[in-house]
Amino acid sequence: MAKRSASVRRELARDDEVFDVPAAVLCACCGQPDCAGCSAASDEGSGVVAIIPWERPIDGVWSRLWATSKATTLGAETFFAAIPDGTISAAMRFALLAETLAILSMIVALLPIAALALPGLTLELARNPAARASALQWLALGVPGLTVWMVLAHALHGAALDLGARRQGARPERRRALRFGLYACGWDLMAGPLGALVMLVTGGVKGAEQALSASLRVPGKASTALLLGVYALHPGAAERARRAGSLAALALTIASGFAAIALAVALN
């Protein structure tokens, strides 16, 4: 009888193992329970790739934009270490929308301060239709121009990191590096007034402070995560590639900024 009871217990244990239900798992990168797995794909791997929230067609534009911006900032190390290959067009649309909203929200936030600091100019704009038209013209040209320049600066950062990584012996990952730069535009949205406002509403003062603090540290952390995760560099080589890439990107950004200013003055 004892032998039979032990046999029954073993059978029940096997049944429990067969029908055991695993706990729910949330993706560490995008926070979604139905994510296929945010890990970098490789030719030798299982084929499971990271799913970027922006590239999910089932969600609304704002929810995809905001989820991706949060992932690039608050979860930067996880997001950029596993950033998958994919289309440039999707990342470009994200970058342009994120930078446009970041710049527009900054303008809206600074307008009251400018009005108080420059009351004479404010009165002139209020009284003079020609001055208002000129200001609106500059705004209509300036916002798209600044948006394109900011997107270009982020793209140059990604390209410079790829160059730095290749000089350390890593294989080229040009498209993923460019996608890194374009999705990095989410940092600017999170660090701007609109991002702070949304975080304040959804997470309170603590949430807004967390987003601001993360925004200040994210470029270095994200770059290192890309170089360690995507390029598989060891920490010393990753740090050298990060420094070289950051310096090259800064120099190119400053040069392009002076060129844009010179062009604007010439056209004026």
Bin the strand percentage: under 5%
Please trace the helix and strand order, writing H or E for each element.
Answer: HHHHHHHHHH
Terminal CA distance reads 100 Å
Strand element count = 0
The gyration radius over C-alpha positions equals 24 Å
Tell me what you see in this structure.
The protein has 268 residues and is mostly helical. Helices cover 75% and strands 0% of the residues. The protein is built from ten helices and no strands. The longest helix is centred in the middle third of the chain and has 39 residues, at 129-167.
Keywords, separated by commas or semicolons:
single chain; 268 residues; mainly alpha; 75% helix
Topology:
Elements: H1 2-18, H2 61-73, H3 76-81, H4 88-117, H5 119-127, H6 129-167, H7 174-183, H8 186-191, H9 193-229, H10 235-267
Helix pairs in contact: 4-6, 4-7, 5-6, 6-7, 6-10, 9-10
Tell me briefly what this model is.
The protein is mainly α. It is built from 10 helices and no strands.
